[in-house]
Design goal:
The protein has about 230 residues and is an alpha+beta fold. It contains 6 helices and 12 strands.
Amino acid sequence: MRHNANDLRRAEQVDACWSRIGVGGNRSCPKLAEAVHCRNCSVFSAAGQQLFDRQAPPEYLDQWTRQLAELDRAAVDEARSLLVFRVGAEWLSLDIGSVIEVAQPRRIHRVPHRTDRLLLGLANIRGELQLCISLRELLGIDPGAGDSPASTPAAGSRERLLVVERDHQRWVFPVDEVEGVHRVALSAMENLPQTVEKSPKYYTEAIFSLGDKPVGVLSVTRVFPTLERTVQ
């Protein structure tokens, strides 16, 4: 960094005694006995204050202006990591922090007197039975192929089970296809207006484009509380 002439003249007037007779020199300074270290000495403090009081060169201000502008752009480009998947004809996504596992399809075991179009039954995930929920039914997606994956999926099938968790409660969602994880800038998302609770759009907080596909971002603060109330 370059300094102006006044700064250089002031710097020349500073007696850097700490490097000659202080802790950085031969330690012959009589003030060391009381101060112990040069940083506790008033001469050292005065020299430091003189450094802070100097006039900032023009390029210093320009540099910080550029850096602050870059921080503003970084805030605008803040992003979310989302797992993108398909249910029927709808492309949806969830924050990757809510997704525990993407599992292969397997048999869904019915729950006597509880299984219905929303609660499909129980899925065995790594030796633990988890509640299996139809996102198709919850979101009001047009019916197509069945939600329950076949016990022996066809070769090349893209069906998967999403194992998700919120507040230590796990759920399993059958989906027709998992596209992958994408980091999406917040600036690329379009917020959706508030809707009534029974509307499918109520569970979607934003939408973004992935290629030519519109992808809805599911709201974990709306989806999971609804499921908890439903299965209680």
